[in-house]
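Long-time lurker, first post. I've been practising inverse folding by hand and with some scripts of my own, and I keep getting stuck on stretches where the structure tokens seem ambiguous. Below is the full token string for one chain I'm working on. Before anyone asks, I'm not after the true native sequence, just a reasonable design that respects the backbone. If someone could post their per-position residues I'd love to compare against what I wrote down in my notebook.
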């Protein structure tokens, strides 16, 4: 399938949210290891409070400057869990951390991959849990989302916000702050397993970072995909005039992925449906025939990627990474995962965000393979995750879910 080309571009478009027709630029996100070490520091320690051992006119002025620098230039880069802990430092810090300005700065500045929300999707009695990549600095107070009105399915995750589905309602929430909102009912029927994406892209130039929810749904008795869009700015749904009729198979697979202004949906054929949210233009990206349906859409170093994994023999796994508008094979690597074994096992690639890592689930184990460091990291065992089937990547952010 050919990719539809746009014949115009909006001159005032956000440089941080380029349209899909500009291509995919590579961007490396710093892990800010030093800042994360600071996240575990206790400003209430005795050593920090011993100001009487030094001349008051020196230490008190220096202390004030250090606190101001940390408050203004370090806090925006810390994950939400650390910020909640630092509210106890002083009334001034508590007020600053609760301010809309810091919420805006932090949601834009702290976008490191934090972990996974996961659920067992077999029944409505599903157990929602959170797997943190660094429990000491990253976490949520209620991983089971018990602050919502009912048991929910998590459909989509984007820059710190979750889109959830109850028995009849959609919710958008921030699990780090327990901030949540019920969306008004859509005009069209989306079904029990909607192909729906939460689109939230914090912008440094716009403190009112609104979000959208885009549902791609099949027209009744027609092989055509329509799009219904919710905007938090207007707090309403609207049906786009755009539609897609060129998919080989119009059946979409569950949720999707949002990055750089575009929502992406996997299909039951070797195609990816793309939808430019601002311009409301659909497009189709073809996957190589050999990829099949065993891979996963993911974001790697700022680029849309499709990653597959295959257990070649014993504990040796082959990872193939496809990138670009043509989804060409960019990298193929064999790695060893786990202990040596005589059997081969089916494996599953899990989506990541703002990372160079590939996440692979082998039975109950989850491994992260860091491409640049060529290092394998085990982040979960069967006893930790049980029978969970659906994993959604998460960023520990203060993003506002109720902004409208």
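-- Answer (accepted) --
I ran through it position by position. Result:
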């Amino acid at each position: 399938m050919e990719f539809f080309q746009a014949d115009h571009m909006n001159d005032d478009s956000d440089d941080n949210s380029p349209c899909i027709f500009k291509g995919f630029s590579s961007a490396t996100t710093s892990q800010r290891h030093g800042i994360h070490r600071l996240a575990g520091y206790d400003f209430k320690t005795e050593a920090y409070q011993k100001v009487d051992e030094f001349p008051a006119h020196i230490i008190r002025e220096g202390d004030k400057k250090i606190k101001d620098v940390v408050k203004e230039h370090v806090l925006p880069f810390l994950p939400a869990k650390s910020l909640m802990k630092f509210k106890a430092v002083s009334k001034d810090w508590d007020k600053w951390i609760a301010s809309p300005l810091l919420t805006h700065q932090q949601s834009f500045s702290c976008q490191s991959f934090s972990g996974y929300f996961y659920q067992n999707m077999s029944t409505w009695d599903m157990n929602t849990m959170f797997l943190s990549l660094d429990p000491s600095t990253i976490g949520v107070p209620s991983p089971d989302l018990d602050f919502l009105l009912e048991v929910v399915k998590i459909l989509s995750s984007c820059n710190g916000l979750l889109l959830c589905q109850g028995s009849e309602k959609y919710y958008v929430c921030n699990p780090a702050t327990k901030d949540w909102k019920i969306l008004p009912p859509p005009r069209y029927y989306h079904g029990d397993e909607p192909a729906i994406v939460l689109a939230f892209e914090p912008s440094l130039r716009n403190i009112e970072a609104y979000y959208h929810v885009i549902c791609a749904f099949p027209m009744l008795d027609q092989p055509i995909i329509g799009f219904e869009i919710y905007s938090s700015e207007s707090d309403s749904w609207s049906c786009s005039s755009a539609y897609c009729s060129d998919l080989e198979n119009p059946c979409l697979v569950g949720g999707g992925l949002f990055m750089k202004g575009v929502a992406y949906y996997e299909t039951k054929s070797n195609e990816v449906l793309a939808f430019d949210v601002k311009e409301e233009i659909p497009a189709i990206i073809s996957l190589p025939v050999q990829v099949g349906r065993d891979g996963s859409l993911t974001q790697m170093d700022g680029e849309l990627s499709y990653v597959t994994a295959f257990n070649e023999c014993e504990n040796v796994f082959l990872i193939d990474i496809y990138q670009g508008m043509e989804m060409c094979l960019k990298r193929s690597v064999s790695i060893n995962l786990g202990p040596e074994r005589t059997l081969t096992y089916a494996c599953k690639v899990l989506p990541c965000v703002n990372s160079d890592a590939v996440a692979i689930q082998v039975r109950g184990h989850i491994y992260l393979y860091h491409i640049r460091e060529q290092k394998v990291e085990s982040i979960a065992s069967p006893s930790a995750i049980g029978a969970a089937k659906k994993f959604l990547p998460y960023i520990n952010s203060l993003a506002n879910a109720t902004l409208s």
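A couple of notes from the structure itself: The longest helix spans residues 56-74. Residues 48 and 55 are 15 Å apart (CA to CA). Happy to go over any region you disagree with.
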